[in-house]
Amino acid sequence: MSFTLELTPAHHELVRRAHTFAEEVIRPAAAKYDQLQECPWDIVDAASREGFYSPLFYADMIADPTGLSLPLFLEEIFWGCAGIGLTLVLPALALSALNQAGTPEQLARWAPEMFGEPGDIKLAALAVSEPQGGSDVANLQTRAVKDGDEWVLDGSKIWIGNGGIADVTIVNAVVDPELGTKGQAMFLVPKGTPGMEQVRRLDKLGHRASHTAELSFANCRIPADQLLGTEDKLNHKLDKARRGEGRSAALGTFEQTRPMVAAMALGVARASFEYACDYASRREAFGGPVIENQGVAFPLVDIAADIDAARLLCWRASWMAANGVPFHLGEGSMSKLKASEVAVRAAEQAVQVCGGWGYVSDLPVEKWYRDAKLYTIFEGTSEIQRMVIGRTLATEAVKGPQHHQLPGDHRGLSRKFGHGSLARARAGEAFLKLAQKAPDKLLELGGKLASPGK
């Protein structure tokens, strides 16, 4: 499918429904759950009743060949509240890992347990990060050892969204330490499994409506069939890794989700930017609205341009992922990098525009400021995104920009006769020579025919 900025009627309806839900259900509850630091169960249930919280919903979003449904949805939901939004989408991250590494039978068995249904809400978590590892996925210490018909997990995980309260936790663990990220596998651990414990709930700067915890695994035994995929598939993957082939399931999940994190950051950026513009238009000082002062308007102008630029990067990366177009220069990381950093700047500028009122909880901008910072940290810090992009430069940048690599019909008639072709250029030159000798009426007609239109 060709990349286009034209949204379908279904896209517009999705944006309308998501924005209405964010405005009428999420935003009124945002301050409450930010203060309580509790899972917003009633909001999750309302999202489920609206059709926004189920494995089939996310599968349908991911199946959109334009790649735009999910980022459109996420931007609106996170415009409402980043913490509540994260609670709603965390099970989708675990679902992505299940879809990447699991079997069809495991997908059918466990996906419903990750979401539940209206009136019986369930949660899921993806446990990858560890205290000593951070963004270094190759430095994980949690081990998984096969013991008869069971796998035994031992280790620690931290920064785990829904950790300790999830009905299903997908745990990334090392099965062959010598193979780095390629020597890892993922395991399904249901709630209540002996040996998995919540060490503590983390007291965070922002996203406080999203439950985040540290987990420990001590002699945590699970049945062999709760390895994502099959043991034969795992052994085949390990053999390939020993030959220098293959890839990490966790890294595959991150590659898919970075443009989605960009969309989340855009929601916070847009909320901050819109509020700042509205406040600056209403707030009067020195004889008029403060937005008429260049010191206020110009920073907002830069943010407006950067939000749109980041959104285009997000849409491009999402379209590429949906259509199997390889990331040439780390385009997924580009979208996450730019969206996360403009979110921080937009929120900071909103606080600045609102002055003292922006620094206290009377206005929502201080919350957005706290929320925005997370996007430059999780799913790979900004420094990691720059490393991912930087590693492509020596070999890929010399091949030209992304549009030099995009798929398309390289043999069609438009190659020889389309806009910009040599044939059209020669025809235009011939017409200009002919026009010099043509009557005025004929020249006027020819000019109209040759005009590119308005």
From TrEMBL:
Domain Acyl-CoA oxidase/dehydrogenase middle intervals: 125-220
Keyword Flavoprotein listed: yes
Domain Acyl-CoA dehydrogenase/oxidase C-terminal: 244-393
Cofactors required: FAD
Keywords: FAD, Flavoprotein, Oxidoreductase
Enzyme Commission number: 1.-.-.-
Listed InterPro entries: Acyl-CoA_DH_CS (IPR006089), Acyl-CoA_Oxase/DH_mid-dom (IPR006091), Acyl-CoA_Oxase/DH_mid-dom_sf (IPR046373), AcylCo_DH-like_C (IPR036250), AcylCo_DH/oxidase_C (IPR009075), AcylCoA_DH/ox_N (IPR013786), AcylCoA_DH/ox_N_sf (IPR037069), AcylCoA_DH/oxidase_NM_dom_sf (IPR009100)
Lineage: superkingdom: Bacteria
Location of the Acyl-CoA dehydrogenase/oxidase N-terminal domain: 8-114
Family per similarity comment: Belongs to the acyl-CoA dehydrogenase family.
UniProt protein name: Acyl-CoA dehydrogenase family protein
Pfam families membership: Acyl-CoA_dh_1, Acyl-CoA_dh_M, Acyl-CoA_dh_N
